[in-house]
Structures are given as structure tokens and as C-alpha cells.
Specification:
3-stranded antiparallel sheet, 2 domains, globular, alpha/beta, 8-stranded parallel beta barrel, binds flavin mononucleotide, TIM Barrel, 347 residues
Length: 347
């Protein structure tokens, strides 16, 4: 990946140097793990194009993860990471699979690292310990994570696709970067669709960025043609967060393109709330029905192409996804825009 030798290019590579060194990549852009989408083909393509691909382990078994890491290694000799979800029942077996393959970077998503997981990833006796990257949804948690020994942070705002927190990327970046960016590399995620925004967050002290939505329509992505078409047609306002309608029935917000599935989910919540009111179901059963509603829904959309009833998780930057194109072109465009933005800083 060549970014030229202009003033803007020199400024960009200086601002990305720390993130690149940490990741072992040419550009400090992580391809955020996306369940079903971030498998060997997309991950290897991102790493081969100079970025840093991350395998989404999601609900994979240790055996499937083992095969996915091996498959990715067969497609790239560049570094890549593995994203593990903290509540996976076999988290420690998955960590062992990563260790077996000497995976260099583990991204832990879904909450604070459970007891013992930090030691399993980085502790003594782990041979070549992996670098651990965690999500920091607030400044206090960012500080806590750094104290507990994580190597880098992702700060992800609610513009992002998939499961989201309540605060926007711009506010989180302002709250967290000035306080902790000197201690560990911080990667900003959520709503980034163009290089100007990347330049902006680098100027604020980020070591790099993480993008998900922008990579879904890469030529190398195995997402179903219907899934990609839905992305290309959508605008920012189509990517909406799921809404909880009853305080008794918790819903973790997910940002996805609005479709019939989303409307049926609202109807399902109403139906279950009524059953609770009449005493026809117990609270635990009611909550389980809500929690399980979306099980398999992302797969249904990404792999089967049912974009009406499946979950078409997408961030607000979806409006900036205009066509299917190779990962290398996406990264080159982002870098070009960032270079231009930084070039202008000279004026
Ligand atoms: C379809 C889809 C699936 C996702 N799945 C996961 C996941 O399994 N684990 C995770 O940590 N983040 C997941 N994310 C979030 C991405 O890793 C990334 O942080 C996010 O997409 C960045 O924001 P952006 O979509 O605005 O670029 C997903 C996002 C999308 C769009």
C-alpha cells in the first residue's frame, strides 16, 4: 500500500505509525469483526490490502474457529486478529485455540473480560502472549481496562452497526482520547465512512480506526448479494437501533436496516408483555422469548439472503457504501481522502 510522498501522506503515516506498529500492519485500519461476514476471505483480503482483518468468532465452536484461523493463514501471511465474545460458554477453549495458532491479537467484545481470561490470554505460561484489545464504552471503564492490563482499546459509538451502546462516537472520542490515548493505542469506531473522519480522529489522538459497515460490500466479502444490495440502496436514516418497548423485557440495542423483521420484533415484544400482564408466562420465560427472537437472524440475512426477516446489521455510514468493490480499493479511497484532508491542514 503506497500512500505517496506528499505533505498529507507524510502527515498521515506519522499519525498512523503507532497504530501500525501495534497491529503490525501497513495502515492503522482494523476491519471490525462482523459475525458471518468476517470469515477467512474478507479477513485475509483486509490484511493483504495493508489493513488489519479480524475474524468474528461469534457463536463458533472451538473446532470451527480452529479451521477458520487455519483457513485465514492459508490466504494471508500478514497479521490478523480474532474477535471473541466474553459470554461465549467455551471462551477459555477458544482462547486456547488462538494460543495454539499463536494468534497475535485478540479482541474481546461483549463486556469486561471475565475473571481469568486476561491471564489465559497474556499471563505467564502462555508462550507467545497475544495482545489484548477491549471495547471501552465509557471513560471510567477505559481507565479500569488499562489498569487491568489490556494493550489497546476500541472506542465505539452508537452510529456503528450491530450491538451498540448509548453514546455517539464523537462524544466518546472527546471524552476518552484526551485522557488515555497517551497510555495505550486507542482505535475509534462507529460511523466512519470516509478518510476525512479518519484524519479527524487521528488528529484527536487516536492510533487508528475500526470500520465494519464500509467493508460489507467488498468483492471479497461472502455476504449474500441481497445483503449487499440492501446496503447499497440504504441511506443513513435506514440504519435504526432496535427499541425496547417494555421496561420488564430488556433489549440490547442493535443497529440494523429497518425491515419487516424489525416490525415483527416490536409486535413480539407487545405480545409477550401482554402475556406477562395476564400472568400466562413467567418473567424468566418471557425474557428468554425476547432474547432468543433474533437467534440466527444475522445468518439468515448474511448467508441465506433473507433481508426482509433476517437482521441486516448496518451502521449509519451505510449511506456512503455505493458499490461492490475490492477491499484494496476501499482502503485506497479511505487513505486518499485522509491524505487530502491532512494536506489541507497546511494551508
Ligand atoms: C453485520 C455486522 C456484524 C457485526 N458483528 C460483530 C461481532 O460479531 N462482534 C463485534 O465485536 N462487533 C460486531 N460488529 C461491529 C463491528 O465490528 C464494528 O465495530 C462496527 O461495524 C464499526 O462501526 P461501523 O459499522 O459504523 O463501521 C458488527 C457490525 C456489523 C455491521
Amino acid at each position: 500500500m503506497t500512500i505517496g510522498n506528499t505533505v498529507g501522506a507524510e502527515r498521515l503515516s506519522r499519525r498512523m505509525a503507532r497504530g501500525c506498529e501495534f497491529l503490525g500492519s501497513e495502515v492503522a485500519i482494523l476491519g471490525g469483526a462482523m459475525s458471518w461476514v468476517s470469515e477467512r476471505n474478507l479477513v485475509a483480503a483486509i490484511s493483504n490490502a495493508g489493513g488489519f482483518g479480524v475474524i468474528a468468532c461469534g457463536a463458533m465452536t472451538p473446532e470451527l474457529l480452529d479451521a477458520e484461523i487455519a483457513g485465514t493463514k492459508a490466504l494471508t501471511d500478514k497479521p490478523f486478529g480474532v474477535n471473541l465474545i466474553t459470554m461465549h460458554p467455551q471462551l477459555f477453549d477458544l482462547i486456547a485455540v488462538c494460543a495454539k495458532h499463536e494468534v497475535t491479537h485478540i479482541v474481546l467484545a461483549g463486556g469486561l473480560p471475565p475473571t481469568g481470561s486476561l491471564d489465559a490470554i497474556k499471563g505467564p505460561g502462555t508462550g507467545k502472549p497475544a495482545k489484548l484489545i477491549c471495547f471501552a464504552p465509557a471513560l471510567s471503564l477505559a481507565k479500569k481496562l488499562i489498569r487491568s492490563g489490556v494493550d489497546a482499546l476500541v472506542v465505539e459509538g452508537m452510529e456503528a452497526g450491530g450491538h451498540i451502546g448509548p453514546v455517539s462516537t464523537s462524544v466518546l472520542a472527546q471524552e476518552i482520547l484526551p485522557e488515555v490515548a497517551q497510555d495505550v493505542p486507542v482505535f475509534v469506531a462507529g460511523g466512519i465512512g470516509r478518510g476525512e473522519a479518519i484524519a479527524g480522529y487521528l488528529d484527536m489522538g487516536a492510533a487508528g480506526v475500526q470500520l465494519g459497515t464500509r467493508f460489507v460490500c467488498a468483492t471479497e466479502s461472502i455476504a449474500h448479494a441481497n445483503f449487499k444490495k440492501a446496503f447499497i440502496r440504504a441511506s443513513a436514516r435506514d440504519a435504526i437501533a432496535s427499541v425496547q418497548i417494555d421496561p420488564r423485557l430488556p433489549v440490547i440495542p442493535v443497529r440494523a436496516l429497518k425491515n419487516a423483521g424489525g416490525e415483527l420484533f416490536t409486535a413480539k415484544q407487545r405480545e409477550v408483555a401482554q402475556l406477562l400482564d395476564t400472568g400466562s408466562v413467567e418473567m424468566a420465560e418471557a425474557q428468554l422469548q425476547i432474547e432468543h427472537y433474533w437467534a440466527g437472524a444475522l445468518r439468515r440475512a448474511v448467508i441465506d439472503g433473507d433481508v426482509e426477516h433476517g437482521s441486516v446489521m448496518a451502521g449509519q455510514s451505510v449511506g456512503m457504501v455505493r458499490k461492490e468493490e475490492p477491499v484494496a480499493d476501499i482502503i485506497a479511497a479511505l487513505m486518499g481522502e485522509a491524505v487530502q484532508a491532512l494536506e489541507k491542514r497546511a494551508a
